[in-house]
Amino acid sequence: MANHSPIDQIQAVVSDDFATVDRHIQQQLSSDVPLVQTIGQYIVNAGGKRLRPLLVLLSARACGYSGDARIALAAVIEFLHTATLLHDDVVDMSNLRRGRDTANAKWGNAPSVLVGDFLYSRAFEMMVNIADLEVMRILSNATTVIAQGEVLQLMKVRDANTTEAIYMEVIRAKTAMLFEASTHAAAVLSGVDTPQREALRRYGDKLGIAFQLVDDLLDYQGDAEAMGKNVGDDLAEGKPTLPLIYTMREGTEAQAQLVRQAIQKGGLEQIEAITEAVRSSGALEYTASLAQRYAREAIEALQVLPASDARDAMELLANFSVSRTF
């Protein structure tokens, strides 16, 4: 196992369940309309880390739950996530995700949006079959929060006055909410007591924030090939992420002005100068230290749970989330 990456070690703990979830996802993608199935399979099979269904499986195992509903819940979470990706790429006019063409680049915006709607609808069908009202409440609330987060982010595009507090609100809604829903819903499904449910909810929230902070950090120091996107993508879209917000707040007047203009204008004309400003202002260290703090808080939350291989894997996942380069 020493030769395997951390993510391989984490997935190995629930490898049989993971394979079952994959089969369930493929079954649920079936449609009488061929294009629905084609686009659905294209994006679901795009080679992502499947972190959110992994969180469902690990949380259920950490709670000692092995009922079939955990498989359906993991598939629901992946469908919700995939639907948001399809819609995100249309909103952002993205052409590349995970190193290959986005669905909207291949088939156009209209089919991408509509297949995203299909995936949302199919997720809710599966949710009804799970037949747990509290799980449905958690997941339906999560989809509402995520949609609001998307709109808030859209409102802040090219807004150089975006504060760190607003940025944190966006990433908590857009990214952390589905992590939290994954761990919280699995805990509820498992029937554990309130302290353990709350511990897993907190773990998902803190992990999701740490993960997004590192994503935004990697926009300036990541391996573009490994990440499957271009370094500087968020800046090109005029999105004010934390490294940029910090540079405007704490950098020199010239650095702040450079970043401000780039956000307002969008594009990558000054990418090298901006990357240098972000690095020399201390923004990357600040963002990394904040991510590490949230990862530590995620690990602390888990200590309520009994010791297990699943809990160990979840701790490893929190550490991986802040040490990764992609």
TrEMBL record:
It comes from the Bacteria. It holds the Pfam family polyprenyl_synt. Transmembrane segments: none annotated. Its cofactor is Mg(2+). One of its GO terms (biological process) is isoprenoid biosynthetic process. It catalyses: 5 isopentenyl diphosphate + (2E,6E)-farnesyl diphosphate = all-trans-octaprenyl diphosphate + 5 diphosphate. Its EC number is 2.5.1.90. GO terms for molecular function: all-trans-octaprenyl-diphosphate synthase activity; metal ion binding. Keywords: Magnesium, Metal-binding, Transferase. CDD domains: Trans_IPPS_HT. PANTHER family: ALL TRANS-POLYPRENYL-DIPHOSPHATE SYNTHASE PDSS1 (PTHR12001:SF69), GERANYLGERANYL PYROPHOSPHATE SYNTHASE (PTHR12001). Supplies octaprenyl diphosphate, the precursor for the side chain of the isoprenoid quinones ubiquinone and menaquinone. Belongs to the FPP/GGPP synthase family. This is Octaprenyl diphosphate synthase. It comes from Aestuariirhabdus litorea.
